[in-house]
Every structure is written in structure tokens, then in C-alpha cells.
From TrEMBL:
Comp. bias (Basic and acidic residues): 470-479
GO CC terms: cytosol
Protein name: RNA helicase
InterPro entries: DEAD/DEAH_box_helicase_dom (IPR011545), DEAD/DEAH_RhlB (IPR044742), DEAD_box_RNA_helicase (IPR050079), Helicase_ATP-bd (IPR014001), Helicase_C-like (IPR001650), P-loop_NTPase (IPR027417), RNA_helicase_DEAD_Q_motif (IPR014014)
Residues of the Helicase ATP-binding domain: 85-258
Amino acid sequence: MPPLSEGRSERPQFRKSRSRRPGQGNTRRPLTAEAVPTTVPDHVESTVPEGPLPSFSELGLSEELVRALTSAGIAEPFPIQAATLPDALAGRDVLGRGQTGSGKTLAFGLALLSRLAGERAKPLKPRGLVLVPTRELAMQVEEALSPFARALGLWCRTVVGGTSFPRQIDALRRGVDLLIATPGRLSDHVRQGTADLSEVMFTALDEADQMADMGFMPQVRAILDLTPRDGQRLLFSATLDGDVDKLVRQYLHDPVVHSVAPPTGSVTTMEHHLLFVSAEDKQSVVTEVAAREGRTIMFVRTKHHVDRLAKKLRSVGVQAGALHGGKAQSARTRVLGQFREGTTPVLIATDVAARGIHVDDVSLVVHVDPPADPKDYLHRAGRTARAGQSGTVVTLVTHDQRRAVQGLTARAGIRPASTKVRPGDEDLIRITGAREPSGIPVAEPEVPVRARRGGGGGGPRRSGGQFRGGRFDRDRERGGGSGRPRRVAQH
């Protein structure tokens, strides 16, 4: 990643509306002591309001949004929403730390939609932007926010690596109020002249640490440089160090910092276990754990191992789905849908493919292959114990892996219980719910056959320059209709 220039500057202390020439980057004056510190604090005390949480109305949301939330069965805010919404609605830059499942999507989404209400986007000029690391996460953010956008007469669309670049252009030409995008594909549109970010006054970066881990920071900076320097920015991340810290210092002005989780990311409703197992027993233990009741995600390191393990489990009666970056987007979407619906209760995944998995009621995460570093451990573990639910995380550890895994969990701030297990052990059953599989092979769910649609699948070939696509952003995007909702009067 190219180093940042020493002459970095910051937005002025007081926001002023300033015109900007097309393509002009952010020229910011140096940070002062009153602005954000040179490094993000290693620990930020929880800013969850004490006592009963305020209602959405008390937080300042409009009647339209409150009614839409009630219709969606959302009666009260999560702590991260109660903490951040007042500042975000007031126009402050917000730096939020919270684990997956903490309610971050609505925390920034409701704020952006509220700020966007009452105006229309011009063709090719979105007014709000959400940057996310993966296409799956982009789709889930769109799914979560669309009902509330419709309640305000707004339109949100995804722009990710896609099956139809022309369809994305068509949506942008119709006017998109809130654009949800991965950095690589949005960079493609900027370079092609099909997306103009000069009127993006409200930007949210979700899972910023994951975007840094996946190598997207150059594209993210280039994108932010094309947005108005006096725009509002919200950044949410599980960790606030390294490249995320640099991004905060360069692009957020005097941000209000909110946190609802300790720096380690260990959730109190999450149990952690190291299961010591012999190399000879490991496959049998994996099979028995996979045969348990309930949603289970198993992590392995390679795409080949994902396919091999899923096939092995299906051969003994466990309906398992495979998710990795080598699969077409349609297959990935289908597997995630089956996992979410419960028809496929076990998901085998690699780290990269699983970064966009946001499915509730995952009661067990299994590190079949130990993660490479503490961040990967925490990101994997964050697939369970979401939204205040409980969950269990187990790591299968062979004799030669003990020292490395114990050091890794210590660096992650985790204190797991350690247990030696064998197939059929009572401790294995107690911790994971393991049981013998049926032994009757099950078929992989059938792929529905659909007529091929026109429109082409590829976007423009990526070339050099600051908008080169990210390493893992060679995604495909689902299409979608282009009907715009009827706008409603604002009160």
C-alpha cells in the first residue's frame, strides 16, 4: 500500500459549504490538539446510555421511520444505535466500535436515510454512500435498509462486482439516493464516468477493519477524496488500529467516539473452547460436531478443503453447504439463502467468503483449521452470539498446533476453556451438541435452472491507476429491478 503523504491536512473545524472543482481531492489543514488524537485510543469506554434505552422517537427519528421500524418488529434500539444516532442525526462525524450483530447497520443506515430525506438524487450523482468490504455484506445492508428507504420515498441500490454492469449504470442514471458499494466496483464506475461522487454529503464505512485487511484502503481513500470535504462521515469497525486509525485521522473531523464492546471483541454471551484432538480422530470429531442440531459454521483455510469437507459431510448424512470465493455469485447467494432458511444447517467457509455472513441464530462456530491471526479469530467468532444471543466458539487443536493456538487466543484477549476430546466423548457432546450422523448420504440441493438473461456479465476490464479493483473484489453482483418507489411527503 502506498505510504500516506507527510503533508496530510484536515477539514476545517467549522463546516462550511464550499464549491469544488471536479476531481479535486480533499485538501485539509493539519489536525490540532482539539481534533481527533494522533492515534485512536486503545480503549474507549462504553458510551451506552445508562438506564433504560431511549425509544427511537426520543432518539430523533421521524414518524415515518418509527412506523416502519414498528412494522418490521423492531420495538427498541440496540445500545450502539442509542449511542450513535443522536450525534449522527446532528451531523457529527461518528467513529463507532462494535462487533458484528451489535446493530451497526441500522445505526448508520437510519442516520443516513434521515439526513437524505426530502430531496432527490440527480442522475449518476448519489447523495449518500455506504462502503462495505464484500458483495454479500452489501446485499444484506441493502436488504436491511430498503424498507426504511421506501418509507421515506428514497431509493437505495447496490453497486458491487456484478453480473450486469449496464444494469448498474441504468440504476445510477435513474438517480440513487443511497448507494451501497464495494470499493473495487465503485472505482470502476468512477473511472468509466458512470458515478459522480461530488454530491455525496453522507458517507458510512462499515467493517472498516475488514476493508483494510482485504487491501482496499487505496481505493477507499481515492473514493473519499472525490466526496465533498465538508460531508458527514460515519465509520464503524470492530477494531480501531493500524490502517483504520490512519483513515480516521485523515478523513473524519473531530469525530464522536462510541463503543459498545471491549477492544478484544469478546462478547459476554459467547463461550470459547479449545478442543485438543489427535490428528487421527479429527475428521470423526468434525463429522459428529457437524451432525448436531442448529446452525453451524465451520471455517477452513482453503477453497479445496471447503469443497472436500462439504462433500464428505453430505456423504454421511449431514446437509452442508460450501462457500468460498471460487464459486459464482449465484451459487454463493443460493448457499447463503439455504443456510439462512435452515434447509442447509451447516456452512463450510473460508475467511474471505464468510466476511459477509450476517445470519442470526448461528449457535456454533468451529475453527476446523485454526485462524491465521487474532483478527481472523475474532471475525470468525463474530458470526455467533449476534444481537445479544448466546453462542459457542470451538477451535480444534492437534498436538503440533497447541502452542501457536494458545498464543493466538491470548493475543485476541480470549481465555478459552481447554478440553481433550475424542469421538463420542461426553465433553464433546456437552460443549458442541455433537452426535452420530445418520450415515445416509444426502444430495447437494438442486440448482434451479433459469433461462439466461441478456445484459452481459462483465463490467469493464480493470486497468491501472488509483481505482484498480481490490484483490478480493472480483465479485459478481445480482441484478435487480429499477422501479423507483413513490416519494412521500416529509413532515
